[in-house]
Amino acid sequence: YPREEHAIAQVMRNTGILDVATSAFEETAVVDDLKGEGPMPVFVPSDVAFARIPRETMEALLSDMEWLREVLLYHISEGLFATGDLIFENELRSLQGEIIEVKVAESGLCVQNTLISVPDIEARNGIIHVIDHVMFPRNSRRNLPSIKETLEEKGFDLMRSLLETLDLDIQSNEKHRITVFAVPNEALLNLEEYPKLISSDRESLEKLLAFHVIPNEYLHSELRIAQTIFAANGKPLKIRISDQSTVNGIPIIERDILCRDGVIHVIESPLMLER
């Protein structure tokens, strides 16, 4: 008979090196989140990782179930992300809501500068990556510039001007973040219709911008899961993730530029105008 694969929680129990995390997940009922269909990647601190927390901090953490639950949810994301997938991502969104930064360092693959010491432990509904420190969420985006400020800083003056002058009835803020597919100035200027649009055709200009604004925030890792997203004009945008990620066939040349009120992905040329 084929071997039945256990769910994440049982696999954690079976490892013998994740006892503290397993108990914490059970005490806060976060274990219920690990029983879903998934798939989900879980970055689980080892028993040694918990032992590294200062005694006073550990006591405070264990005495505050709400804080402990927030910390544990920060270690869980969504999607199927083995290490071979993670190396192509910059960020994941945790179930707690904040961003988990992913990067390759000299020591190996890290999340929030924490080394993945034992990767790719498979479970029926996801993948466990054992990490060597406990990660703490910290609302780190509050001090980031806004989308419009970031566009200006990075030299996307025309895209910023479009966002400034046109009203798409989309308000971005820290509680409602959006996605912008930003086009470099030279690519907009090379657009055959651009001189006409900028001089007189406001309706077409709004249509152009509406293709590049998504009324929800999508990190690159979430684009991988979504595959199709809908622009501000309601039109579908097809996402293809490979060695060269594309949106409606247009290459994404820079991704996951985090802002206070959303995220920017830079694309090579404008998305198609609606005819």
Automatic annotation (TrEMBL):
SMART domains: FAS1. Residues 5-135, 143-271 form the FAS1 domain. Signal peptide: none annotated. InterPro entries: Adhesion/Biosynth-related, FAS1_dom_sf, FAS1_domain. This is Beta-Ig-H3/fasciclin. It comes from Mesotoga infera.
